[in-house]
Amino acid sequence: MGPLHELDERVEDERDDRGDKEHEQDPARCRGQGIEREDRQGEQDELDPARDDDGGDARGHRARLLGGGRGSCGASLVMLRSMEDALPSVTLLFCGDVVGAAGRRALLGSLDSLRADHAPDFLVVNGENAAGGLGITPKIARELFTAGVDVITLGNHTYRHQEVWAYLDEEERILRPANFLRSQPGHGTCVVERGGVRLGVVNLQGNLFLDSGRTAFSEADAALHELSNRADHVLVDMHAEATSEKVGLGWHLDGRVTAVVGTHTHVPTADARILPGGTAYITDVGMTGARGGVIGVKREQAVRQMLTRMPVRFETSEEDPWVQAVVIRTPRGKRRRAESIAAVHLPAGRP
Ligand SMILES: [Fe+2]
Ligand SMILES: [Fe+2]
To answer: What stretches of 133-240 adopt beta strand conformation (E)?
Structure first.
């Protein structure tokens, strides 16, 4: 969430959004040591090269998770690499920050329509505001996966709910920004596969006005090195406040990834385009949530705070929900290139 993020503590809890306690875990949980994290990840790579646990989709098949978070490459991947010439065109659907119950209803209620209109092969959503406007819970993440979401990206509200901390380590397909500290729970890249096409997803967070432990640009390079032989396409979610950082990252990665999409401000920009090197780019996709509020917050509460400069308890808006997304199509036979990117602004109404 954007400029109102400093007011997190006053946001309404929306217990029905967050009610999942089944994954409540050790309150003292602290990864603490980056080395320990890397070791655990290595174990998981060995034991679980192609995990395919929960989640299906309405198209009757599901994206398969490939490898672990870091550095693995199995025999099946080598085989797939030899098929590069036959790499089919794919369609990626990326939805901007899902905000609260209204955003979840808008997304889930629009999936049939989105599938009918765009036939996405992969569905990636930013879920950093999915639980009551702040953060996400394991229960909500599972609901999104079950509905057919392939990968969930996050941002500055990643750790709002403690019950999600362990889940971020357990579930490969939910990403927190890769340039957080290595000691923080979770991971920032994953690879999913459908129909022989491997999609790598990278989540990054800007360094201007946001608390990111490490620099986004160098971590982007590290993530691409990690994915070098593991992904036919790469989608990067750059969660950032400053437009300059997102534009800069687009240029930095042009020709090296399929798409760089911006999130966090909740307001879509009108600059979707294919950069000269073939990378699809947009500064901000917008949000999947109630457009009748102020970036997802009830507008009377947000305006009162701005007017009075006094604390105001915030609730997520329910008024005028929309899905704001982009559809990216890739050319047949070309790795990490896009041929089109189009914004989707879909009024969702109330189910
Ligand atoms: Fe957000
Ligand atoms: Fe954010």
So the answer is: 151-153, 174-175, 189-194, 197-205, 233-239
Residues 82, 107, single domain; the answer is: no
Look at the alpha carbons of 71, 171, 92, 64 in this order and tell me if their dihedral is positive or negative: positive
206-230: pLDDT as tens digits: 999 999 999 999 999 999 999 999 9
Please report the pLDDT score of residue 6 as a whole number.
40
CA 294 to CA 138: how far, in whole Å? 26
Residue range(s) defining the domain that contains residue 8: 3-86
162 and 206 in one domain?
Answer: yes
Which ligand approaches the C-alpha of residue 203 most closely?
2
157, 233, 264, 266: the active-site residue: 157
Q: Pull the structure tokens for residue 228.
A: 């070098």
Do 227 and 82 fall within a single domain?
A: no
Residue 157 belongs to domain with CATH number:
3.60.21.10
The answer to whether 157 is a known catalytic residue is: yes
Query: Cα of 3 to ligand 2 centre, how many Å?
Result: 9
At 160 the pLDDT is: 97
Stretch (H or E) spanning 323: strand 321-329
pLDDT band at 36 (very low <50, low <70, confident <90, very high): very low
Annotate 89-139 with DSSP letters as a single string.
Answer: P-EEEEE-EEBHHHHHHHHHHHHHHHHHHH--SEEEEE-TBTTTTS---HH
CA distances from 139 to 17, 24, 99 (A): 9, 11, 15
Q: Rounded to whole angstroms, how far apart are CA atoms 43 and 30?
A: 19
Asked if residue 188 and residue 48 are part of one domain, the reply reads no
Domain limit, last residue, from 56, 86, 116: 86
For residue 239, pLDDT over 80 is answered with yes
Closest ligand (CA of 316): 1
